[in-house]
Amino acid sequence: MSVTIKDVARQANVSVATVSRALNGHENVADAVRTRVLAVAKELRYSPHHAARSLSSRRTNTIGVVLPDLYGEFFSELMRGIDQVARDHRQHLLVSSYHGNPQEQAEALRTMRGRVDGLLVLSPYASDASHLAENLSPSQPAVLINSQTLGTGVPSLSIDNYRAAGEMVRHLVAGGRRRIAFIAGPADNFDARDRLRGYCDALAESVPGAEPWVVQGDFSEATGHSAARQLLIGSPRPDAVFAANDMMALGFLFACQQAGMDVPGEIAVAGFDDIPLARYTHPSLTTMRVDIAGIGAQAMRMLLQHLGDAPDQPGTSETLQANLIVRQSTTAVPARAVSQSG
């Protein structure tokens, strides 16, 4: 038997009208009452009947997009994909950045209640998880992008970062590289964690006895550039550096050029994401291609399917694969150099 709004009202000890106002984000509900109603709805796994909702409330034709940041090519490409599908379906976008602050994320999610028909949320940090679970309304259709799944049936779209990172390490080893360093992303970022884990496991399998050589970064060009101070000074130097995203790889590549190092002759450089700029550097950057705009477009289609606007599109959680793109920055070293490097 399906759970009804009356069941939620009975267990929360409030009226049906109060449950409706709380779930739809109306302001004339006390915070304590709203919290209790949301908790009961979550506990009972209450899902409003969307056909009934459409009779009692007008659609806004607006989709909320909540991102940790708006700066950089990754987010620009993601928004490009979201916007293309939104325009095709005559949907407006309400975009908010929470700057990696969980409290700001919670506020953004609360603010969008009742103003949008559905939500696209990119929440890649472990510290976001509890705030996300508490502030996603059970009555608000949502799709999570590159986020921790909440175990509540919310559709999600993510990348197989672990497999992709391992493939890059194996590519570098096949090219004769053995001393492979890794510039890691933020420690509490799910993507960064899986990429680091993939690097460590593939290195152990491909280069027996090799120890992980990890420098901490934060996905910015600046930390990629500063990583060079740790990796290019002293002996032995790495013969390859794999960065957890392209921005850090490009920062490191620039430091190599400043130091007069031959890339890829002395050191190979690789990244992750395949942002548009990666193919236009010198040398062009080897990377794991993530169809960033495609992720945004697919997430938008999944949400529209959930809203009933695009029934031909899939609506379940999906894991996408990244593809190895080999460019000039990882050209294989000569066979003699391979034997000398062990």
Key traits:
434 Repressor (Amino-terminal Domain), 44% helix, alpha/beta, six-stranded parallel beta sheet, 342 residues, Rossmann fold
Describe the structure.
- The chain has 342 residues and is α/β, with parallel strands linked by helices.
- Among the domains are: 1-58, 434 Repressor (Amino-terminal Domain) (Orthogonal Bundle), CATH 1.10.260; 161-290 and 323-341, Rossmann fold.
- It contains 13 helices and 12 strands.
- It has a 6-stranded parallel beta sheet, sandwiched between helices.
- Helix 1 (5-12) crosses helix 2 (16-23).
- The N and C termini lie far apart (66 Å).
CA-CA gap between termini: 66 Å
Mean pLDDT: 86
| CATH structural class of the domain at 161-290 and 323-341 | Alpha Beta
Largest sheet: 6 strands, parallel
Specify the number of helices.
Answer: 13
Helix content: 40-55%
Q: Predict the CATH topology of the domain at 161-290 and 323-341.
A: Rossmann fold
The secondary-structure element order is HHHHEHEHEHEEHEHEHEHEEHEEH
Q: Can you tell me the CATH superfamily of the domain at 161-290 and 323-341?
A: Response regulator
Shape: elongated
Number of strand segments: 12
Looking at the overall shape, the CATH architecture of the domain at 161-290 and 323-341 is 3-Layer(aba) Sandwich
In short:
The protein is built from 13 helices and 12 strands.
Write the layout of secondary structure elements.
Layout: H1 5-12, H2 16-23, H3 31-44, H4 50-56, E1 62-67, H5 73-88, E2 92-97, H6 102-112, E3 118-122, H7 129-135, E4 142-145, E5 156-159, H8 161-174, E6 180-184, H9 190-206, E7 213-216, H10 221-231, E8 240-243, H11 246-258, E9 268-273, E10 286-289, H12 292-307, E11 318-320, E12 323-325, H13 335-341
Parallel strand pairs: 1-2, 1-3, 3-4, 4-5, 5-11, 6-7, 6-8, 8-9, 9-10
Antiparallel strand pairs: 10-12
